[in-house]
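Researcher: Let's do a round of design. I'm pasting the structure tokens now; please hold your answer until I've finished.
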């Protein structure tokens, strides 16, 4: 029973994407970018003591806010809560959700490069059939990274982000299209790896997760 529950917990934990959509390129005080992105069902590779598997996630939404502070600095908040599709071990059906928040400080080196540092909070929640609901402990992981961007014509901008930190690393490639001066459409591919994600508060069980797939969204800048 213990092994079955641990395997179900591992399968149900999801990871999140690094907090960048189409980059805000003006960090003047009071400048704001609001973005929402959807990631269709992505491949989720799970590795733990009892399990190595790939499962599907449900469509999930990523909300973010970046605020210019002036002197080339900006602050960013992001919230992403991916959900799993139902998983069955042949006896019971399970599902789960990951609750994440990001808090990043950004510094714009020049018009093409931005560095950042921050904290990514990760907490897991599960519905385990007869076992009931289980909430994992919160992981607080630091991260540092770099975003580069370059214009690709009048309306297109290509960008890439790489990040690494305590028990996490990620990379992302994206292309944004300027619908008008304040609204961008964003298409991207991202891969994120999170290690030692805690599965329960009561016991030190954990698993490693890799999420990869395409996403799309809108960025409103004002």
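Researcher: That's everything. Go ahead.
Model: Designed sequence:
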């Amino acid at each position: 029973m213990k092994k079955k529950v641990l395997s179900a917990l591992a399968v149900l934990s999801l990871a999140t994407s690094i907090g960048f959509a189409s980059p805000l390129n003006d960090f003047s005080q009071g400048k704001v970018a609001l973005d929402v992105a959807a990631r269709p069902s992505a491949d989720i590779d799970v590795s733990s003591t009892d399990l190595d598997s790939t499962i599907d996630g449900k469509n999930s939404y990523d909300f973010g806010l970046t605020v210019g502070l002036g002197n080339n600095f900006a602050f960013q908040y992001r919230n992403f809560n991916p959900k799993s599709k139902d998983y069955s071990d042949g006896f019971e059906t399970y599902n789960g959700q990951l609750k994440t928040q990001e808090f990043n400080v950004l510094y714009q080196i020049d018009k093409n490069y931005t560095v950042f540092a921050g904290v990514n909070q990760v907490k897991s929640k599960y519905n385990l059939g007869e076992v009931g609901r289980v909430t994992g402990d919160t992981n607080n992981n630091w991260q540092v990274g770099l975003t580069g961007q370059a214009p690709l014509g009048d309306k297109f901008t290509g960008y890439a982000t790489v990040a690494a930190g305590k028990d996490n690393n990620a990379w992302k490639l994206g292309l944004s299209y300027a619908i008008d001066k304040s609204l961008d459409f964003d298409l991207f591919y991202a891969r994120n790896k999170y290690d030692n994600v805690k599965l329960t508060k009561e016991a030190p069980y954990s698993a490693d997760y890799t999420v990869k797939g395409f996403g799309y969204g809108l960025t409103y800048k004002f």
